[in-house]
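Bench notes, bay 3.
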Amino acid sequence: MVSAINRDTVVAVFLLLFCGVFYAASFQIKQTSYGTIGAEVWPRMILGVLFVLSSAYLFQSVRAAPGDAVKHEAGFLGRYRNAFLCYGLFLAFLLTLDFLGMLLGGTAFVFLALSVLGERTPRQLAIHAVVAVVSVGAMWSIFTFALRVILPEGEILSIW
């Protein structure tokens, strides 16, 4: 059964339009002669993944019933607490990037963000640690070995 249009549907349609506009704009990216792959490949890959996820979001939002409005008793800070915590963690990641490097700092950031936003039971903390190590390790490997991009190694890993 199709429900009335809700906020999630509007956001999903906006994200799909966003993908379309930026995909069309990717044809205007200047071609360089020094790269092994075209400069448009990476943006199109990211937009492709975003398109698939936005399409799933649209499908899910159309099938779902309209949600009830959430009341926030704690005011402005309580309402945006998670956003402030994530921005604070990201600021800490950026400030410690020279010392920790991308691999250690990124893993710590992902673990702490998952732990702050999710459950903090021992089982969930173990899952957060696995997700952080695997996801950041995979991205680091892609950039380092496949794309040959040198990421900040930090002070700790530079001594080895």
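Next record in the batch:
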Amino acid sequence: MNLQESGEMYLETILRLSQKMDKVRSIDIADEMGYSKPSISRAMRILKENGFVSIDSLGAVTLTEKGRASAEKTYERHQVLTSLFIGLGVNETVAADDACKIEHVISDETFEAMKKHIVQMKGVNSEE
């Protein structure tokens, strides 16, 4: 199953929340994303059915290996793109919002080329 943008957003949110809390529950995801509990429950069911998350008997949501890989990929894109846009002089809030939109549609090839370019530019700038 290829994840749609919404699925990637749920996984990224679970990853970020799991870095701050011991147990992530659907209500935490709903609060963070501003979605209704029924919407989150439906999304978690779909993510669970497709092997991206597991949910224990107490309702704690955990990323599977597959889910963590997807979440980390999306989160890395978000961080790199946000930093790039801020470096270009874009307001931090706008940069994060734009990164959030682009992270889901940019190809692996283009993203890797951007990362490589950023590393090369840092190397050039540090020699000055």
